[in-house]
Amino acid sequence: MLSKRVIPCLDVRAGRLTKGIQFVGNEDIGDPVERARRYYEEGADEIIFYDITASAESRGIFLDVVERVAEQIFIPFSVGGGIATVPQMREVLLAGAEKISVNSAAVCNPRIISEGADAFGSQAIVVGMDVLKVPVCEAIPSGYEIVIYGGRKRMGMDALAWAVRCQDLGAGELCVNSIDADGTKNGYELTLTRAVVNAVSLPVIASGGAGEPRHMYEAVSAGGASAALVASIVHYGAYSIRDCKAYMARCGAKVRRLW
């Protein structure tokens, strides 16, 4: 059985670490380079870095910040935000990332998933999915809708159908973020997580809502996720990465232990 991963998420705006609730009210909370190093030393399994306004602002990612983070950590490093072409993917990989995360660009141009997988391998392509719970309708039979541009544009697309299409196009992993749960610290949206896990054979990262280590254990047990993404729970010092992994291990989850 593969170890369950704990993955801190660095949302970056204008080169600074930021955090909001349900994609609004973001505040500056520090230096992403310093935080990446700290989380690496605490035992994080991977780091995910999102330039959260790059797509909405129609610009490329801040490569200098990516390079400075990559110099400080020696674990898999996934980078997303404003990446819409294979040359842009190559730039980010050359800056030190191991994986590329595409979200809005993939919804607007699904071929970027297959083009990226062909160029760099499926293992390098992570598709981020920002998902909003909505009333069930013909277009959205699961009751979960895809939203892009950092929560700014609803697409009328069913999240489960999109997850399956991403797999068919060659994605190597999905990161499923519940907009409703994001930043609330009330726990992951387990129904959404389990639904995506059941729909695909890819590793699924649960994202949005972690407020205590119990939530992370629930994500990888009841939710079936391969990994739990964390932000507020560690950014504000409530728990360390080591605390979270120790709790998960006590509950019976297999994790990579560094203590």
Write a structural description.
- The protein has a single domain (5-250), classed as TIM Barrel.
- The protein is built from ten helices and twelve strands.
- It has helices at residues 32-42, 63-70, 86-94, 104-108, 111-120, 159-169, 190-199, 213-220, 232-235, 241-250; strands at 5-13, 16-21, 24-30, 47-51, 77-80, 99-102, 125-133, 144-148, 153-158, 173-178, 204-207, 227-230.
- The chain has an eight-stranded parallel beta barrel with strand order 1-4-5-6-7-10-11-12, surrounded by seven helices.
- Strand 5 (77-80), helix 3 (86-94) and strand 6 form a beta-alpha-beta unit.
- The relative contact order is 0.15.
- How would you name the CATH homologous superfamily? Aldolase class I
Number of helices: 10
CATH topology: TIM Barrel
Overall number of domains: 1
> What's the arrangement of strands in the largest beta sheet?
1-4-5-6-7-10-11-12
Question: Quaternary arrangement of the chains shown?
Answer: single chain
In short:
With 259 residues, the protein is an alpha/beta fold. The protein contains ten helices and twelve strands.
Helix/strand layout:
Layout: E1 5-13, E2 16-21, E3 24-30, H1 32-42, E4 47-51, H2 63-70, E5 77-80, H3 86-94, E6 99-102, H4 104-108, H5 111-120, E7 125-133, E8 144-148, E9 153-158, H6 159-169, E10 173-178, H7 190-199, E11 204-207, H8 213-220, E12 227-230, H9 232-235, H10 241-250
Parallel strand pairs: 1-4, 1-12, 4-5, 5-6, 6-7, 7-10, 10-11, 11-12
Antiparallel strand pairs: 1-2, 2-3, 7-8, 8-9
Helix pairs in contact: 8-10
